[in-house]
Amino acid sequence: MTTEAQGEHHDPPYMMIFAVLLIMTMGEVGFAFLSLPKFWLALGLCVMAVWKALLVALYYMHLRWEPRRLWILVAAPLPLVVILITAVLTEF
Amino acid sequence: MTSHATSAEQNMMVPDLTFEPGMKVFNMKLGMWVFLLSEVMFFTSLIGSYVILRFAHPDHFPEPGVVLNVPLTAFNTFFLICSSVTMVKAFAAIQKGDQQKFKLWLLGTILIGAAFVGIQAYEYSLLVAEHFGPSAAGYAPVGRGMEEGGPIVGGPLYGATFYTMTGFHGAHVSIGVLCLIFVLIQAMRGKYTAADHRGVEVIGLYWHFVDLVWIVLFTIVYLI
Fold it and tell me: Who has the most CB within 10 Å: B48, B162, B167, B184?
């Protein structure tokens, strides 16, 4: 089975995503040194990082065009990730 | 039963191992996704440990930019993002059957990936020269306009967690570069075509994943 046979031909906006990633990275560095409360800094930076990671996964890893079943597979460990991070935070 | 019939019968028994009908993707790709998901858990455990230690011992972790060189690493992040673009360009080229562009973009990805590892090694050498090693009890400021002999910044957990997380990521990038070199050699031998370029797609997934992980690590380790 070839990739072509699976109908995976599409024309994603690679350069536009690159520009967004670049601008967001510069924005992140600038944002990190603003004189804001630590909580808002951390929250803003995490939101930007997750957004960038999603762009890479959806467009560069072509997840957007993958079958739904693969989406389910990919989403499977994410609740564990959330549990691992948030559960330990409740200790503090 | 003739030997020919036996062979045909045997062939009917052998499933098509190149394609997973349930998932609707080819097996190599499914395997790579499953591997990457295990990697998600691996890096999450590292990041989770870092978060726990940072909350438990905030005095060990100085403010961003005090110890780590953020501009240099931001530049390195730019490099890794560029390498993701060259990788997808290589993939797009082989999808269209453009062998020359495919090889050029792939070579570009290898060079940029190697440059990322080189810059990370350079960053490590600078930090070690400033007495910030993996087992450093703290950071005695000597660089970036800070006075030598000033108060010790941070604690032993900072160096240990920093080098563990960035070191494991650097190892992943290095392995990725080696895999890309292998793919380039295979490309030179004419292994990939517009009709079948599964190897390129699979290594591309790995390469974008290390980029994705770095996006998260850069934010957590260098900026927060």
Answer: B162
pLDDT of chain B, 224 residues: tens digit per residue: 444 445 555 555 555 556 666 777 888 899 999 999 999 999 999 998 898 888 888 888 888 888 888 999 999 999 999 999 999 999 999 999 999 999 999 999 999 999 999 999 999 998 888 878 887 766 665 555 555 666 667 778 888 999 999 999 999 999 999 999 999 999 999 999 998 899 999 999 999 999 999 999 999 999 98
Question: Chain B contact for A27, CB < 8 A?
Answer: no
CB distance B24–A70 less than 8 Å?
yes
User: What single-letter amino acid sits at B208?
Assistant: H
Residue B19: phi, psi to the nearest 5? -140, 135
pTM for the model stands at 0.86
Kindly state the DSSP code that residue B98 receives in the 8-state scheme.
-
Q: Does B63 touch chain A (CB under 8 A)?
A: no
Contact B78 A69 (CB under 8 A): no
How far, in Å, CA of B203 to CA of B192, rounded? 13
B45 in contact with A at a CB cutoff of 8 Å?
yes
